[in-house]
Request: fold
Amino acid sequence: MTRTEALQLITAERERQTLDNQLVTYDNTNTINDYVAYIVSYVGRAAETRRNGREGCDYVDMLVKTGALVLAALEVLNESK
Reply:
């Protein structure tokens, strides 16, 4: 996967999240520390998926969701200035 393809997947996931009103409301209640915890959790799941070859878990999907969480955290940081 190229960098451009990865960024397209992450951007598409973040756009999907911002279309979900429940997620937007939830995003607005999170602190930066909350986002750090979620990011670490998703990265951990991705690593576990890769290491254990867990059925039904997609390594790339977990990393894309992690990237979208990073974007959400950056958006919150920007809005709080």
